[in-house]
């Protein structure tokens, strides 16, 4: 098989269109959105899909490349760290003696992009012309390896359609001197350091250019800049292979230069075909664990594939020192900072399909406990108060001010007042342990997180004359209302956090008494303090009204102005812009799921029909001013059987990053919304819930979904689930692991590898 034939096969996308995202256009107004949507990432390296061939200096889309964990503080006065852009190694310029060829914009497709989600590849093509004399067709393949995360690959196939002339191809890196200080620059190897944080970056590259099958030697113009010149002719085939190796070091004694040199040497020996094959095999393996199949709704199927593609590309199970920022590695919004998004909206996907990645993300929170303890101590509290915005150290990185929707300078209070983050982290720790049974993690890291966050809440909730413990001066998930008292989400999650910490203290004392003795001594945690925590939990103010079962979102919320949001249907801006900040704060308008989020996370707190009552009260009052909101509402609606409403929320969530109705994603993928789509599908429509002795399924599929199939992992077992709504059957298969229990609509069934479960399901209620 010839090299050319192998390359042309690699450049062909997966034949099944359901696995492919395609964009024909090249609209300058949406160039940044396209660069985000088609980004490639592997949890360590992230590359935006900007134009790489003869890119104009006036191009709107930034060709940024990101390395997870590479933070620096560019503005020493404000001291807010941000993810650093690293040199982009994919740029190519092709020209003639008189100048660059220009891109052809004809009546048909121009510079189309194809994201092959099955293989984790970005494919693109374009045509460059010089009047009627010269024309070349270019096809490109780009990837960052899912098998070996430090490696990237670019393959370029150039076919001369017409013209005999001198042609030049220049391969270069952009941003070699931006944001980083060069310590060492050679032709194919560079080492840089950040200006303030002391981190270092190593980058090595290997290139090969073949003209009609013969390798051509380059002229080295400068470090990371090469040029080839030859005489073109019609029918000529030229192809470029470029392999990148990237490394980050956090310690002075680590040499990233040596690491990338060794990585590049190893991959150069095996060749790009091996690199591509191993990458595709790694993606195939991940899809086998995380794939979701929907029959009857092609749009939902593609939305879920898109979500799982970006979720898979966001995580790196091999680096417990990094987490996933609000835009993953696809854009610069929020400076790469980590929020509660990771624990509440992303961890469920990883816990149930990729527990190694989930463990790594939680170890990041364990490694940043020092910053959380320092934040609590700075404010006079005990335990661990996690940063609302976290970078690499765990120190609070929320900016103190920002420009608001009204263009006025606004104080940002989330860093001090959005305290539910500590309970959110604890929640994810408990969910991971419940689903995986990873006792080593619990003993070595998880227990300490649960205990230190509980200690924070016990010191934070203060007793008052009414005999209750109150948490005053906070912000709940609904960020339209600041400096509020007794936010129901915060207080109930805090109570839950304390109770789980008491559970784990008892468990460690019973099962691992020596480890418990060591940990309790190290934390200076005694029986008297544990008993006081129990008292705090029992007397915590929750805002629940016994007569109705409604949770008041915060003290005084029911007295605020009730604004009819249906009167503002069709608006294109958030409600705080429509009403103004002050009126919004005096109203019951909610930015995002708050009590509804509590209902999603802790449904057992809502007895009988009170879950439905709370959802019906708060759902029409939510303006969905956050990309996190619609997914949480859709999850709860599906659980309650309102599948028509849930499907509408599903579609609205999918549209955040897939629809072209708004120019909204230039700063990066809304990765929490993507996690929310998976949660809506698995926890909502399939009705998955975790129990101490197994899992339970309560399906409520939309009417248009004939079936839903997915894979799960639970405590070392691998399951395959198919909900066949067309025939009202549920099929659960245990592919590996010990026997377990699966409950369907609350009725338990035994499950073994040699004996699957097939049972009837109910027709979903399609009401709203």
UniProtKB/TrEMBL annotation:
Similarity comment text for this entry: Belongs to the glycosyl hydrolase 65 family.
Naturally occurring in which organism (per UniProt): Brevundimonas aurifodinae
InterPro entries listed in its UniProt record: 6-hairpin_glycosidase_sf, 6hp_glycosidase-like_sf, Gal_mutarotase_sf_dom, GH65_N, Glyco_hydro_65_C, Glyco_hydro_65_M, Glyco_hydro_65_N, Malt_Pase/Glycosyl_Hdrlase
Domain Glycoside hydrolase family 65 C-terminal residue range list: 690-750
Keywords: Glycosyltransferase, Hydrolase, Transferase
All copies of domain Glycoside hydrolase family 65 N-terminal, residue ranges: 24-249
Protein name as it appears in the record: Glycosyl hydrolase family 65 protein
Domain spans labelled Glycoside hydrolase family 65 central catalytic: 305-679
